[in-house]
Model the fold of this input.
Amino acid sequence: MIAETAWLILDRLGSGPHQRFLRLVTAGQLEPLELTKADWQRCVELTDQYADLRLDLADAALVRVAEREKLARIFTIDRRDFELYRPRGLPRFTIIP
Done:
Protein backbone atom coordinates (compact mmCIF):
# COMPACT_ATOMS: atom_id res chain seq x y z
CA MET A 1 0.00 0.00 0.00
CA ILE A 2 2.87 2.36 0.68
CA ALA A 3 4.24 1.73 -2.81
CA GLU A 4 0.88 2.41 -4.47
CA THR A 5 0.30 5.50 -2.36
CA ALA A 6 3.75 6.80 -3.21
CA TRP A 7 3.12 6.22 -6.91
CA LEU A 8 -0.26 7.98 -6.81
CA ILE A 9 1.20 10.96 -4.96
CA LEU A 10 4.05 11.23 -7.46
CA ASP A 11 1.70 10.84 -10.43
CA ARG A 12 -0.95 13.29 -9.25
CA LEU A 13 0.85 15.73 -6.97
CA GLY A 14 4.47 15.70 -8.10
CA SER A 15 7.88 15.04 -6.64
CA GLY A 16 7.70 17.44 -3.67
CA PRO A 17 4.69 15.78 -2.01
CA HIS A 18 6.12 12.39 -3.00
CA GLN A 19 9.36 13.08 -1.15
CA ARG A 20 7.49 14.39 1.90
CA PHE A 21 5.40 11.21 1.99
CA LEU A 22 8.50 9.01 1.78
CA ARG A 23 10.07 10.97 4.64
CA LEU A 24 6.98 10.24 6.79
CA VAL A 25 7.54 6.55 6.18
CA THR A 26 11.28 6.60 6.86
CA ALA A 27 10.76 8.71 10.00
CA GLY A 28 8.41 6.06 11.39
CA GLN A 29 5.38 8.33 11.32
CA LEU A 30 3.52 5.84 9.12
CA GLU A 31 3.59 2.18 10.06
CA PRO A 32 2.85 -0.55 7.52
CA LEU A 33 0.47 -3.24 8.75
CA GLU A 34 0.79 -6.91 7.84
CA LEU A 35 -2.09 -8.75 6.22
CA THR A 36 -3.04 -12.01 7.91
CA LYS A 37 -4.39 -15.10 6.17
CA ALA A 38 -7.90 -14.03 7.28
CA ASP A 39 -7.25 -10.57 5.79
CA TRP A 40 -6.29 -12.11 2.44
CA GLN A 41 -9.46 -14.21 2.47
CA ARG A 42 -11.57 -11.12 3.19
CA CYS A 43 -9.84 -9.31 0.32
CA VAL A 44 -10.97 -12.12 -2.00
CA GLU A 45 -14.53 -11.81 -0.65
CA LEU A 46 -14.47 -8.05 -1.20
CA THR A 47 -13.16 -8.32 -4.77
CA ASP A 48 -15.98 -10.81 -5.49
CA GLN A 49 -18.58 -8.58 -3.83
CA TYR A 50 -17.49 -5.46 -5.69
CA ALA A 51 -16.44 -7.07 -8.97
CA ASP A 52 -18.64 -4.65 -10.92
CA LEU A 53 -16.57 -1.76 -9.48
CA ARG A 54 -13.31 -3.55 -10.34
CA LEU A 55 -12.12 -3.39 -6.73
CA ASP A 56 -8.37 -3.99 -6.81
CA LEU A 57 -6.19 -5.58 -4.14
CA ALA A 58 -4.90 -2.29 -2.74
CA ASP A 59 -8.42 -0.97 -2.17
CA ALA A 60 -9.64 -4.31 -0.83
CA ALA A 61 -6.74 -4.37 1.63
CA LEU A 62 -7.57 -0.84 2.77
CA VAL A 63 -11.20 -1.81 3.36
CA ARG A 64 -10.12 -4.95 5.22
CA VAL A 65 -7.59 -3.19 7.44
CA ALA A 66 -10.20 -0.54 8.25
CA GLU A 67 -12.62 -3.31 9.23
CA ARG A 68 -10.03 -5.14 11.31
CA GLU A 69 -8.77 -2.03 13.09
CA LYS A 70 -12.29 -0.52 13.43
CA LEU A 71 -11.34 2.61 11.49
CA ALA A 72 -14.22 4.35 9.78
CA ARG A 73 -12.12 7.42 8.90
CA ILE A 74 -9.77 6.78 5.98
CA PHE A 75 -7.52 8.74 3.67
CA THR A 76 -8.03 8.05 -0.02
CA ILE A 77 -8.21 9.98 -3.25
CA ASP A 78 -10.63 7.35 -4.60
CA ARG A 79 -13.67 9.00 -3.08
CA ARG A 80 -16.15 7.74 -5.69
CA ASP A 81 -15.61 4.03 -4.98
CA PHE A 82 -15.02 4.33 -1.24
CA GLU A 83 -18.35 6.09 -0.85
CA LEU A 84 -19.93 2.89 -2.23
CA TYR A 85 -18.00 0.31 -0.19
CA ARG A 86 -19.71 -0.89 2.98
CA PRO A 87 -17.16 -2.08 5.54
CA ARG A 88 -18.28 -4.94 7.75
CA GLY A 89 -19.03 -3.85 11.31
CA LEU A 90 -18.54 -0.13 10.61
CA PRO A 91 -20.66 2.80 9.45
CA ARG A 92 -19.95 4.28 6.04
CA PHE A 93 -16.43 5.52 5.61
CA THR A 94 -15.57 9.10 6.48
CA ILE A 95 -13.17 10.01 3.71
CA ILE A 96 -10.37 12.53 4.04
CA PRO A 97 -9.26 14.78 2.45
Notes: The first strand starts at residue 73 and ends at 75.
